[in-house]
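Sync notes, pocket subgroup
Present: LS, DG
LS reminded everyone that the earlier model was apo-only. Rerun requested with phenylalanine included. Inputs:
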Amino acid sequence: MQDTEKVKQMLLSRIAESETPREVLKAPELKQLYGSIKDLPPEQRGDFGKKVNELKVAVEKAVDDKEAELENSSVEPIDTTAPWDVNGKPLELLPADNGSRHPLTKEIETIADIFTRMGFGVIESRQIDDDYHMFESLNFPDNHPARDGYDTFRTEENFIAPAHTSTMQNRILKANKSNLDENGYIGVVAIGRCFRNEDLDATHEHTFHQFEGVFVSKKATLAEMLGTLRSFFEVYYSQKLKIKTQPSYFPFVEPGLEFTIEKPAALGGKSSSGEGEWLEMLGCGMIHPNVLKDAGIDPTQYRGFAWGGGIERLIMLKYGIEDIRHFESGKLAFLREFA
Ligand code: PHE
């Protein structure tokens, strides 16, 4: 009588190693076992037949299992969340040595670095906001015509894509109130994207960036503000600059000013003596008492100044870029200039 257990182990190990496990069911050893039943004395056939049958069931199950395993391993699972086809050819990425950082990213780092060295904290502004931060907390009365000047994009739920970084003023003041007791001042610059629904041309883009400064102390003055801004611009453009201010109106500052610099000769300005071209770089002024009050800061105790200006404009002057729309265009020819 054949040893069914031995045959079973042999067939199972053959199945485990086979790429075509069903073939094993045709193995001569199996046929031999079946064939040998009839040659046994009748009293042994029952027992032996049962064993052969158990063997057959075990071997068939092993074949089924192995086939399922082979099928699973030959099909890559589809990852529907992957940004490319995982079953396709391996991804070929753009060579890293042809990539570069966007000029905005680089210049924003430079700006943040200059203000950090001057002692300001630097934060990022928000890209979705509400009426309170866009207007109310900034002393725009309801239905004030100045609200229209900001050409804001709104969602159906009345959220606002911020049209300036001044939306951060109230947050900066509230979040840093304890600094007034601890250090005697609040000094934060918020940098981020702004959006305006306006007609596009070489100097107007629907998406742009601003840098907003907020400074509060017991005796902040306009002179300090002008000194701070002059220092910033002179470091940014690496040269001495002539500055000038003229009155302007923003509901959240009083007085409000436009800060202008004379276009330096090195950056395409007039080289001979005499009045050159004055460029408006930003809006600024002493923070309105209502803005301080709204953030829980007593305007009879503290004073502050704030400014907000466009970053693209700053960069355009530095590098002689003629059209603001290049920044968001994704044009490689433009980006390579800064690689
Ligand atoms: N938020 C103003 C603008 O975008 C600029 C500004 C900021 C003016 C802070 C005064 C003080 O036009």
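DG: The pocket of phenylalanine is lined by residues 164, 166, 212, 250, 253, 256, 283-285, 306-308 (CB under 6 Å).
LS: The longest strand covers residues 185-195.
Action: DG to write up.
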